[in-house]
Amino acid sequence: MILTTLFCQLDELQRRGVHHFIIAYSGGLDSQTLLDGCHAYKLQHPHLQLSACHVHHGLSDNADQWLQHCQKSCQQLAIPLTFEHVQVAKGNRQSLEAVAREARYRVFESLVDRADCAVLTGHHQDDQIETLFLSLKRGSGLDGLSAMPALMPFANGLLARPMLQLSRSELQQFAEAQQLSWIEDESNQDDKFDRNFIRNQLLPLCQQRWPGFNQAAGRSVGLLGQERTVLEELTAEDYSNCKRASALSIGALKSLSHGRRDRVLRHWLRLRQAPLWSHAQQQQAWLHVALAQQDAEPQLNWAGWQLRRYRDELHLLNDKTERPIEQIEWHWPKPLTLPNGKLRAFVTDSGTERLREPTDDQSVTIRFGQLKKRVRPANRNGSRELKKVWQEMAVAPWLRQHIPLVFYDEECVAAVGYWIAKDYLCQPGESGWHIELKC
Ligand SMILES: Nc1ncnc2c1ncn2[C@@H]1O[C@H](COP(=O)(O)OP(=O)(O)OP(=O)(O)O)[C@@H](O)[C@H]1O
């Protein structure tokens, strides 16, 4: 039964193009079972690549023995093992565990270097229900209540949890029947931690009162997960309707219901890797920034980020992009690393607007800031102050200072992504630079 369920999930991974399974192997009951099950699967699918990764956090006095156990098991099964020591900064135990988890996932990420790789963890049904209870305690919405997804994009590949339909007791029966040996993490017995309290006290009580509680709760989590997927698809569609270059259209957001709008905003923060808002911040973002009066200059600041409005658009900025350097020499054709991305120039004679290449004796610099310069964009008549050009193009004042301006000697010849000066715009068929800034 265990193997049938696991193999079904592994088949699905193969159908999705995964050929390298990397087992997140702590040496505990769950990942020990996973290791053994995957080994059995590989015997039937010899072309697959199977490896394991153990992260040594050094949090337990027994951490060295755990690593030895993992090395021994992998050696017996001829599974290559990577192990990594990570330093976890001191703090209280609960936050220590969160920091350790962060560090662990960073190690896993570094291993998933191709699209056909997946990291597999030993999470099972009981873990899901514990996560559900923790989410209830925090008052989470659907995202938290649907607990952990069975499959998700991760680094360049995937993160899979192929044992979510199996209970801890099923895994234990299997492990005992196979005479597997595994390590016991002594901290799992400490009910001071919420997860342990749920596992050791709360769930046995529920099971005693309502036999079958775990299966029912597991089914609920699964159903919530399906609903979440549907909602995520809808949110991705809403987001692409609201998206304008690097901003969101307030008009388009207004046309959505409250719930759909909130989801789009959260989706946007995730994509930009900005910390999510609290409930209060989310309200502030909409009521006090997006819906502020036209002449106000509202902004929301949180964790080094800023939400700002300009005309009908919402913009997201962070401290890193807030302090651009003033001027830097560009040794083209080498890419140039700037605080807000990487600048590249390709020589081409077709497609988008192209900038004439500099002569051998011209120096090329990139400058930022509100320069008091007259410029001659090709799509406008005559020359005018740079500031005037930005106003005509409706570029928000705080964004202007982040736009790389290309100078040949002391002449401003282009604003990357916005315009090229009249005398430097290539004629049809003429080859020149196409410049792009990749964030
Ligand atoms: N030190 C480790 N090295 C490698 N993999 C690990 C390690 N610790 C945990 N894992 C992987 O994570 C799975 C879940 O472990 P555990 O329940 O202890 O994690 P957790 O702290 O609750 O956090 P999370 O569920 O987010 O991973 C394990 O089955 C195993 O696959």
Structural class estimated from helices and strands:
alpha+beta
CATH superfamily of the largest domain, by name, is HUPs
Give the strand content: 15-25%
Low-confidence stretches: none
Write down the overall geometry: elongated
Cα-based radius of gyration, to the nearest Å: 28 Å
How many distinct folded domains? 3
Q: Any guess at the CATH architecture of the largest domain?
A: 3-Layer(aba) Sandwich
Average pLDDT over all residues: 90
Taking the sheet with the most strands, its summary is:
6 strands, mixed
* Contiguous helical run count: 15
What is the top-level CATH class of the largest domain?
A: Alpha Beta
Number of strands: 21
Bound ligands, each once: adenosine-5'-triphosphate
Distance between the termini: 48 Å
The strand order across the widest sheet is 3-2-1-4-6-5
CATH fold descriptor of the largest domain: Rossmann fold
- Share of residues in helices: 40-55%
Features:
single chain; 439 residues; alpha+beta; Rossmann fold; Chorismate Mutase Domain, subunit A; 3 domains; 6-stranded mixed sheet; 15 helices; 21 strands; 42% helix; binds adenosine-5'-triphosphate; cytoplasm; tRNA(Ile)-lysidine synthase activity; ligase; TilS/TtcA_N
